[in-house]
Design brief:
CATH architecture: 2-Layer Sandwich
Number of helices: 3
Strand content: 25-35%
CATH superfamily: STAS domain
Helix content: 25-40%
Largest sheet: 6 strands, mixed
Distance between the termini: 25 Å
Number of domains: 1
Structural class: alpha/beta
Length: 133
């Protein structure tokens, strides 16, 4: 199943049943609405199978500081279908903000940060392997 779905600020691709890749589009602003859109799309299209998520943000993605003020996972049920989250971006400011967000609002699943998809994939595979043991 390699279907790519346009979800507004990003695309969602279910690479395989246990891996979903969300790619934010250039110039996107990471705000509460885009966060909810991506989670809603995963619920709608991928919640049938627990999966890892690789979220890829281009260098020019901007960040709305209001995202920091709320735990966007609370009461969403994401832990039922999310095994872990690999955040990938070459934008150091965005990554610092995301690290702050997850320090303030720990996710109910493992989260790790990477500059390249090629660095994230081994971590994703290791998380999946741990689940299968």
């Amino acid at each position: 199943m390699h279907a790519t779905i346009d979800i507004g600020p990003a695309t969602l691709e279910r690479v395989r049943p246990d891996l979903v890749v969300i790619r934010f589009k250039p110039g996107t602003i990471a705000d509460p609405a885009s966060f909810q859109q991506s989670m809603g799309a995963r619920k709608e299209h991928c919640s049938d199978t627990p999966h890892m998520v690789m979220l890829v943000a281009p260098e020019d993605v901007d960040f709305d500081p209001s995202v920091l003020g709320k735990n966007h996972y609370k009461d969403q049920g994401a832990e039922a279908f999310t095994l872990g989250l690999a955040l990938v971006s070459r934008n150091p400011t965005l990554m610092n903000i995301l690290e702050l967000y997850y320090a303030l609002h720990p996710a109910p699943f493992p989260v790790s940060f990477f500059r390249e998809e090629s660095e994230a994939l081994p971590w994703v595979e290791a998380q999946l392997a741990r689940r299968k043991v």
